[in-house]
Design a protein that fits this description.
By secondary structure, the chain is α/β, with parallel strands linked by helices. It has 15 helices and 6 strands. A hairpin with a 6-residue loop joins strand 2 and strand 3.
Length: 278
């Protein structure tokens, strides 16, 4: 590690072969950041070798991280695909349908295996809905399975009314309409979804008895317009906010998107978990 630190500061001390040998020795899987920093001080040829070695060893996530850190996207445009494919297979084998669905949004090439994975996990309705939204053909067997599942859901679950609306909020123009609708409701349900990779918040779901608003945090999480709209809704004492650990979720979102730091100060919030135990 000391030798690597010296070379990072004085890369001209070693020739190409010696530098490559040192880089390979440092890059043993336990010091990825150090190895990537060392590669950053060396010739581009050695940087490419670092990525190629990691890929050959099946260290796809660290290889992709090196690609982005070293600016090698032009040489490895698909650096993220191998680790995402592996994560998808793992998510399916562990029955993690949330991760399966999330990974389907990261790359068009993962959509078909995502739909098939959800199908294997018994999430046929979600599989069909995602396939339809992605413009994929739905085979007759899946259509039949979906019809049967919907009948089962309608029999055993409380389903939203037929005129229930779902709005994807990924542009600022939609925010005033969302704010007005939420403030006029008696109660607001809230939930959040998280990235299957690093656990960061990606989606805030807000719903009234008449409509749901899916707020794309990756698109709007750093916008003052979203901060103002959510602050107006969350600080209002009128609508009751209901969710599982809703305040905790809002705190995590505020930590990830500092401009939304007013979210933890939510008023009139009720935790369903507390209702269950009371």
């Amino acid at each position: 590690a000391l030798a690597a630190a010296v070379i990072i500061e004085l890369p001209w001390l070693l020739g190409e072969d010696s530098a490559d040998a040192l880089l390979e020795a440092v890059d043993d899987g336990s010091r990825d950041d150090v190895a990537t920093r060392l590669a950053g001080s060396l010739d581009r040829k050695l940087q490419l070798r670092l990525v190629a070695r990691r890929q050959a060893q099946g260290q796809f996530r660290s290889a992709a991280k090196a690609v982005h850190t070293l600016g090698l996207e032009a040489d490895y445009p698909d650096a993220d695909l191998p680790w995402r494919e592996r994560s998808l297979v793992s998510a399916i084998s562990h029955g993690n349908d949330h991760a399966v669905a999330g990974l389907g949004f990261t790359d068009d090439r993962l959509r078909a295996p995502c739909v098939e994975g959800l199908r294997q996990l018994g999430q046929v309705v979600l599989a069909a809905e995602l396939a339809a939204s992605w413009g994929m053909a739905i085979d007759p067997d899946l259509q039949s399975a979906v019809a049967s599942k919907r009948l089962e859901l309608e029999k055993n679950h409380l389903c939203p009314p037929a005129d229930f609306e779902v709005h994807v909020v990924d542009t600022e123009e939609v925010l005033p309409m969302m704010q007005e609708a939420l403030l006029s409701a008696q109660a607001i349900g809230l939930d959040a979804e998280w990235s299957p990779g690093d656990g960061s918040p990606t989606l805030l779901q807000l719903a009234t008895p008449r409509a749901a608003y899916l707020v794309d945090l990756l698109a709007l999480g750093s916008r003052q317009s979203l901060a103002s709209a959510l602050q107006a809704v969350m600080s209002a004492h009128g609508p009751i906010k209901v969710g599982f650990d809703g305040s905790k979720d809002l705190g995590k979102i505020a930590a990830a998107f500092p401009i939304l730091d007013g979210l933890p100060g939510v008023a009139s919030v009720v935790g369903i978990r507390n209702l269950e135990t009371s």
